[in-house]
UniProtKB/TrEMBL annotation:
It holds the Pfam family SpoIIE. Keywords: Hydrolase. Gene3D superfamilies: PPM-type phosphatase domain. Residues 181-397 form the PPM-type phosphatase domain. SUPFAM superfamilies: PP2C-like. The keyword Hydrolase applies. PANTHER family: STAGE II SPORULATION PROTEIN E (PTHR43156:SF2), STAGE II SPORULATION PROTEIN E-RELATED (PTHR43156). GO terms for molecular function: phosphatase activity. This is Phosphatase. The keyword Translocase does not apply.
């Protein structure tokens, strides 16, 4: 029985399979603008009401509502300090009892990356409901990711301020900002979100090997974005040819030199992590040394021989190696993070970065929550602005 003695709707596994199967049948040729009514109809079908689809804005500060027929109108919700934000950051549903039932906030997960949050109200919630809602939220997340490839509406909903052309190019290049697998998790963030130009990152999990690259193209604006595009394209092309890190560096170096000439360069760091053994290899081409985090504290800088930035025709690079322990994290970052001037004129510096990494690591859990919190607190401590691109990328061997 439900509230006030009414007969409870059937939300058993059999009902759930029928509902989700019907949604899948409709989803294949569903136009993107009909996602909202499809979700709203499904919520009504399980006895829910007031559905809201909340998407992460590009600055990762708020969750913005997706408009559409059948969805409740809402204002943007801050990620920090809200029930929706708690579900978003933890990847676990949050239930809030209310006078008319239970408000449920469901994380929309796609391969470990958070698309947003689905919120709805039910009279009450039991185990069958939670199982159905979890599967329903997964299907909604897949729909949003798939359909966003051929509509601007989802992009427009997430954009809270004007975005530069260079930033638009960079966001189109990026892989999902986070990925979680049984043996490894990664998360990255770019600042300033709406003006970024030369910084970027890329990764791929190919069988047991995680491949990662972070780059910082010289200059600003479209020139930097163009160089970053070529650098990432060259990295992906070489990586997909299954060649070694030294060969990847050489291929990227030639691509930048041939396209832009001898006066242009891109600093870069390319890594490979064997997710079975924890064996880490990397080539550093002008980047700050990555930080090794163990037991939620920075234990050392991963010192390595540095080769010339990509585009300068450097010699064959030295490949550095390190055996990680389970639970170790490696933080890569670009120089814009530490070379920014504080309000008093002093450079922010790596020592302050390490201090704040230790503080944030103790207060946050997952890699995505750590990267987001760290980026925001560092920006605040640097005076609330970023005059150069600043990138963080965190790897966890699980």
């Amino acid at each position: 029985m439900g509230r006030d003695g009414e007969r409870r709707l059937d939300r058993s596994e059999g009902f759930g399979e029928h509902l989700l199967g019907a949604l899948l049948d409709q989803a294949h040729e569903l136009p993107p603008h009909l996602i909202a009514p499809l979700v709203a109809d499904a919520v009504r079908g399980i006895g829910g009401r007031d559905p809201v689809l909340l998407l992460q804005d590009y600055g990762q500060l708020v969750l913005v509502p997706l408009s559409g027929r059948g969805l409740a109108a809402r204002e943007p919700v801050p990620i920090d300090g809200s029930s929706a934000g708690a579900a978003f950051l933890s990847g676990v549903s949050v239930e809030v009892p209310q006078g008319d039932g239970v408000r449920v906030y469901l994380p929309l997960l796609d391969g470990g990356d958070e698309v947003g949050v689905l919120a709805l109200t039910l009279d009450d919630v039991d185990g069958d409901d939670r199982r159905l809602l979890r599967r329903f939220a997964s299907l909604v997340a897949d729909l949003l990711v798939t359909k966003s490839g051929y509509t601007d509406r989802i992009f427009q909903a997430r954009r809270l301020q004007p975005m530069s052309v260079a930033a638009e190019i960079q966001w189109s290049l990026l892989p999902p900002l986070a990925m979680t697998a049984p043996r490894v998790a990664v998360a990255g963030i770019l600042e300033p979100a709406y003006q970024v130009a030369g910084d970027s990152f890329d990764y791929a999990l190919n069988d047991d090997l995680l491949h990662v690259a972070t780059i910082d193209a010289m200059g600003h604006g479209l020139d930097a974005a163009a160089m970053a595009t070529v650098a990432i394209g060259a990295y992906r092309h070489a990586r997909r040819a299954d060649i070694g890190l030294a060969e990847i560096y050489a291929f990227m170096d030639r691509a930048i030199a041939e396209q832009f000439g001898p006066d242009h360069f891109v600093t870069a760091q390319m890594m490979r992590l064997n997710t079975v053994s924890g064996h880490l290899q990397w080539v550093n081409a002008g980047h700050p040394q990555p930080l090794l985090i163990r037991d939620h504290a920075v234990v050392e800088r991963l010192e390595s021989e540095t080769t010339l930035p990509v585009g300068f025709g450097g010699e064959e690079p030295v490949i550095s190696e390190r055996a990680l322990r389970h639970g170790d994290r490696v933080l890569c970052f670009t120089d814009g993070l530490v070379e920014e001037r504080e309000p008093g004129g002093e450079q922010f510096g790596e020592d302050q970065l390490i201090d704040w990494v230790n503080r944030v690591e103790r207060s946050q859990e997952g890699v995505r929550a750590v990267v987001r919190a760290l980026s925001h607190v560092l920006k605040e401590k640097r005076g609330g602005h970023t005059s150069d691109d600043a990138t963080l990328f965190l790897i966890e061997w699980r």
